[in-house]
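From the shared-data thread, chain only:
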Amino acid sequence: MPPTRGNGKICYIEIPTTDVARSAEFYQRVFGWNIRQRGDGSTAFDDGVGEVSGTRVLGRLPSPVPGLLIYIMVDSVATTVDLVVANGGEIVQPIGADAPEITARFRDPGGNVLGLYQEPA
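Structure, as tokens:
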């Protein structure tokens, strides 16, 4: 099914990194993102539901502290926290800090801070 298109939809993300392969592997293992090669040879990704795509970019500083903060929806924040750590990420805000929301924040191997969000049951 093609992604939803519409005015105001977030559709593309560029993730700063110094190691494209390492970053791609991290997001694939933790979130199941599809990794693909573009015609120009660059590495791109599609999120777990095929709604957002993007790429990793070299030569841009990571976002090491929350400013604009992107949250990734997951089935279980607790399970994903374990996957983040097992794949070289770091938890910078544990579950419970935004209670009653189920969230956590992590730093990816490239130094970017992003959030995790779980829909309430």
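Strands lie at 12-16, 34-37, 43-46, 53-57, 71-73, 90-93, 102-107, 113-118.
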